[in-house]
Amino acid sequence: MAEHLTPLDAGFLGVEDSDHNVSMATGTLAVLDGPVPDQASLQRTLAERLRGCPRFGQRLVRHALTLSAPEWVDDPHFDVAHHIGRVAAPSPGSDAELHALVADVMSWRLDRDRPLWEIWVISGLSGDRWALLMKVHHCIADGTAAAHMLTGLSDNGFAQLAAHAAAPHEVPQPPHGRLAVDLNPLHWIDALRGVVELATGLLQPGASALNGPITSRRRYSAARVPLADIQQVCRVFDVTVDDVVLAALTESYRDFMIRRGQVPQPDSLRTLVPGSPVTADAPARPDDRASLLLPRLPIEESNPVKRLLAVRSRLAEAKSGQRDAGRAVMSAAGLLPVAWSAWAARLLGQLRQRGVAALATTVPGPSEPLQIMGCDVVAVLPVPPIAMQLRTGVSVLSYAGELFIGVLADFEFAAVDELARGLEAAVARLVARSKRRRPLRDWHGLALVHSA
């Protein structure tokens, strides 16, 4: 029986169709120590490990007038060599050259006539390193599923799958299935306020250098912070990892605006958060990834600690209604005919919205170090897509005791490195503040912190 695309996943194709400069592919970049393996050996190894996921050998067939959902069919001309490429970074092969190469690869669209994925082997890096860039269309996998796929390609993950699989080469499919539809009218009434908030955020007027038409080229940069530093801040101020990351992101955007003579206003940084924020120790459930949050990040606040606590409060406020609203919207989309949902997605992609200024996603990555063909994976960097007039997208991935933050931007947005370095500096400031004060313990054993 043919397997059809869900309305949500078909919507990602619709968003891509709305703007020829948009690519809805998500990326995961693994940086490895050691000499790069020869192409033939690497291709054989990856092909063997990819064989357990049938989706990598299938392409989409779309029907005339989009009257029914696109369906997955086996590609009779599938050749893994067409999907595994090799490219050398320009000299001297530093992170700057690597990031520029990633931006170029992520800027072009995947070929709709073939299976919607690519893997690029990147050589020529300094420090005896090489890299592996996995690029997968969002209709196949979100960032969380892509991180799981990378684990499956590693020596560790493949060995575990081989040991526990019920049948040879049987690999669990990425957690990206059909949405559960909530038909409880009471839940829909409770979500109405959140739906209004989401719609208002999308349609409200505004102007920012963070919004505008997207070109066909991209810029990419990345930040890296120890997870232990984030957890230090969490313990002292009683916040979550996601609170810290979004507070740092807020400060980086704030500094960007101030340096350009702009005055940050309370509504200057409405941020689209697909799914509910997750951490490595609390991975997202499939239904969480089908929700939306649109919090107003406190970009107007100058004090780092007060800003952090305001992020915690505003996220909690958004979750109280917007999460259920996002699920309600997704559930409604699941009930619509595919032609209607595709039309709505294209319309949304063409919307000249100014209310949302940024995109931020958080992905739980592998907690243990990985190896690929005996080479240590020293970094795993996420690469989010950008669309809907959003010129920047930020994705955070946890891996082996560190948080890696990937920033993808339109090429006309030249401050991508500035944002990444600002994120690192903002985390460092919060860590320094946390070390000035220690949590007090009341007689119940609860952690208390003096006001900022």
From TrEMBL:
InterPro entries: Acyl_transf_WS/DGAT (IPR014292), CAT-like_dom_sf (IPR023213), O-acyltransferase_WSD1-like (IPR045034), O-acyltransferase_WSD1_C (IPR009721), O-acyltransferase_WSD1_N (IPR004255). Residues 290-428 form the O-acyltransferase WSD1 C-terminal domain. Pfam families: WS_DGAT_C (PF06974), WS_DGAT_cat (PF03007). GO terms for cellular component: plasma membrane. Pathway: Lipid metabolism; Glycerolipid metabolism; triacylglycerol biosynthesis. It comes from the Bacteria. Keywords: Acyltransferase, Glycerol metabolism, Lipid biosynthesis, Lipid metabolism, Transferase. It is an enzyme of class 2 (transferase). Its EC number is 2.3.1.20. Residues 5-245 form the O-acyltransferase WSD1-like N-terminal domain. It catalyses: an acyl-CoA + a 1,2-diacyl-sn-glycerol = a triacyl-sn-glycerol + CoA. GO terms for molecular function: diacylglycerol O-acyltransferase activity. GO terms for biological process: biological process involved in interaction with host; glycerol metabolic process; response to hypoxia; response to nitric oxide; triglyceride biosynthetic process. Belongs to the long-chain O-acyltransferase family. PANTHER family: O-ACYLTRANSFERASE (WSD1-LIKE) FAMILY PROTEIN, WAX ESTER SYNTHASE_DIACYLGLYCEROL ACYLTRANSFERASE 4-RELATED. This is Diacylglycerol O-acyltransferase. It comes from Mycolicibacter nonchromogenicus (Mycobacterium nonchromogenicum).
